[in-house]
Amino acid sequence: MKTMSAGVRCRRQTVTVLFVDIVGFTSMVDELDCADVRELQVDYFRTVSAVVRAAGGVVEKFIGDAVMAVFGATGARAGTPAGVRTAAAAAVRAGLGVQEALRGRLLAGRFPVRTRVGLATGDVIVDLDEAHDGGYGMVSGSVVATASRLQSCAPHDTVVVCAATQSASGAAVAYQELPPVSLAGKPAPVELWRALELQETRTLQPCA
Question: What is the pLDDT of residue 200?
């Protein structure tokens, strides 16, 4: 563990970050009353959070229609090679699970939605005192921005991941390689993989 400043307990480790959002959310809510938007968001956030937590992830924040979650920040194996692999596979399971939970469902009993999910694995600084649901700013590192940008360019109704996530979870998840994508701030195109389905139940225990 490394203390970054007085009173703050932090450590460097590898985690997987998940971003999910609703496709076309802005145009959808422009036509709704704010009370309807609230009902939609509450049902959406509740559904996504339940799937993330069941997979061992921590919900870091809600932003509009986006949910950010972190896998592998806590637990006895956090940051170990086995823990990194388990966390990456759990994050993919959560991404696929979110889409399955929302497929064909009417949020708040009225609103059909489509989602897209982006995942990235990499080194961060974890604030151990904020490593809990709603722990805003619990991780710091470029992997957070990478996951967000991957989500924004994901095809509708898909879960896409970076090469590090694919490498860490490849024994547990079947993937389809997609053309590399150019992301803002990245000097070269980023390799992209689409998660298709889970392969091995023995590797898919919650990562906590």
Answer: 63
Tell me the whole-structure pTM to 2 decimals: 0.89
Nearest of 6, 43, 52 to residue 22 by alpha carbon: 43
Using CA atoms, how far apart are residues 82 and 190, in angstroms rounded to an integer? 25
Interval 70-93: pLDDT, tens: 999 988 888 899 999 999 999 999
Look at residue 187 and give its three-state secondary structure.
coil
Mean pLDDT in residue range 178-191: 85
d(CA 108, CA 152): 25
Instruction: Quote the CA–CA distance of 21 and 87 in Å, as a whole number.
Output: 21
pLDDT value at residue 208? 52
| Four-residue CA torsion sign, 93, 193, 88, 123 | negative
In angstroms, the CA 48 to CA 3 distance is: 32
Give just the sign of the alpha carbon dihedral 145, 49, 60, 28: positive
> What Cα–Cα distance (Å) separates residue 172 from each residue in 21, 48, 83, 175?
24, 22, 14, 10
